[in-house]
Write a structure and sequence with these properties.
By secondary structure, the chain is of the alpha+beta class. The protein folds into two domains: about 325 residues, Leucine Aminopeptidase, subunit E, domain 1 (3-Layer(aba) Sandwich); about 170 residues, Galactose-binding domain-like (Jelly Rolls). It contains ten helices and 24 strands. The strands form six sheets. It has an eight-stranded mixed β-sheet, with helices on both faces. The protein has a six-stranded antiparallel β-sheet with strand order 15-14-17-22-19-20, with no helix packed on it. A four-stranded antiparallel β-sheet has the order 13-24-18-21, with no helix packed on it. The radius of gyration is 25 Å and the shape is globular. InterPro entries: PARG_cat_C (IPR046372), PARG_helical (IPR048362), Poly_GlycHdrlase (IPR007724). Keywords: Hydrolase.
Length: about 575
Amino acid sequence: MSTITFIAKKRTYIIPQIDVTFQTLTNLFFIDKKYRPCPNLELVIRQLNFDFYHDLLPIIARWASDHTQSNSIIPLQAGTTARVTYTSSQARYILANAFFLNTTTGYGSIDFIDIYHVPFDRVAIERIRCLIEYFRLLSQQEENNNDHRIISIERYSYGEELLDWKKQLVPILESKINVFIDRMEASEEAHGFVDFANKKIHIHSIMPSATQEEILFSCCPEAFLAILVCDTLRSDEIVILRGCKRFVDYSGYGETFKFVGSHLNYNSANIQDILIMDACLSNHFSQYHIDRDLGKVWAAFSKAKNEVIVTGNWGCGVFGGDPTFKFLQQVCATTGITIPTTIILTKKENVVETNLTTITMTTAKGATTSKNPSTTATTATTAKASTTTKEAGMSVFKESLISLESIDGRVYGVHDTEINQDSRESKPDQKGQYPSSESPADACDGNLHTKYVNYGDCSTGYTIRECGLDTGFYLELKRGASLVTGLQICTANDFPERDPLTMSLEGSNQSKSNLTLGSSWNLIYNGTSGLEIDPGRLNCGNVQSTKNSIQYKSYRFLVSSKRDISNSVQYSELKLFEY
């Protein structure tokens, strides 16, 4: 793979000494004029308590123009163990150019246009304010010229090193675990900080969104470089960022996220490693996924080379994991680490769940096993696979999420397609179109912050009630035949009028070209979407139960009506469940 600097064009930014306006700034942006109205950025600058145009903008421009800091690196490809390094000045150079929208795409993009341009989005405004605080604090430190940090982005492919959990015999030591009620940032003694990561680090883009990972990166902006450098994480890979300083403090989460000022200890000598480890999104109690996530935690904690690591509800929330089970996985993985390691678990008050999860795993040092999931084993057992909760004298079995990873890596969009009829293929940016950046695969990736948009026979400038109807997608599951007993649809980030109101699900045991034939499909569900009452943006509707008793390996999902007049149908996720 060739080297890359991620700078679109080496430019010299000149800021006039007088009469500088917001238009002066946007005229410097390396972007088409139609995107230059950036209301969020303008609002943030207007609300600052210092003269941004005089005190800070010329400094950012100087940093972006200092091409002696250009650093050509080889990106970190999947399946490799390797690292790249930047000085703090080189990171500042890239982020200063990103401020002017002058970067190129690596594995992901650090283009800030999505938070600059979306009109008056509150989360976007707070994320911009975090970025400006990073630049402001650096401008103050520059006078002392004492920031000589090295930022290291380290990718580890650890499959051949995995422990054989079935053979681990060391007891779990209570002394290795410290639980306290506070947010993770309150643990100042910790040397490692767990990122509840997406396998595409930070979704490979910067959006008006505030998950734990996105908040972490806004508080530590140098971490954004990992978006460019790192390929999508495989099931036996983690990434560690070393030397990224925390500049910003915050409050809230999601829609309540808010910038509150500079981090009190941003000049501290203790700079925490960021442990980037993604969790599985479904089938949490399958042997494969138990082993997968144990491996993720073990690798991240052991490669961190730190004594104290702070974590929390990793693998829970949008990842769908059980808090108790994911906590115990972290505890068990810690006992398999040969260096002295303590984990600090943070939690909120009154959120401990009562369940029947049991762990019979004990751990020890040293044993290894093949990275092939089919050959690994563990003594972890759980009653959660058949968890029951008492409700009105009944035992209610909890469903589990079915992975929508496809057997060939593709999800096929369709338009003008009705139940039991042949599929008509949708293609990006053509008739029956969907945007190439908002494809059917985005409805199956377990990420609420991506979405699938289909215009059907309409286009972006054409708006009638029929636009986007009878569209959807089909795929063949990589996991094989599954018994679907429920489905759930989730809203996207905007335009509630595009929400599906009625939907259908069909199953098939055919493959490949046969899946284009209507005769291959059997109806499983046809009815309301569970979104009759708008749950808000980036939320899921009620789970719709089916009376299905047949396992299918392929599924086709269609939308037949939407909330209101609009140019398309959109949704962030389709979730299929089994009991």
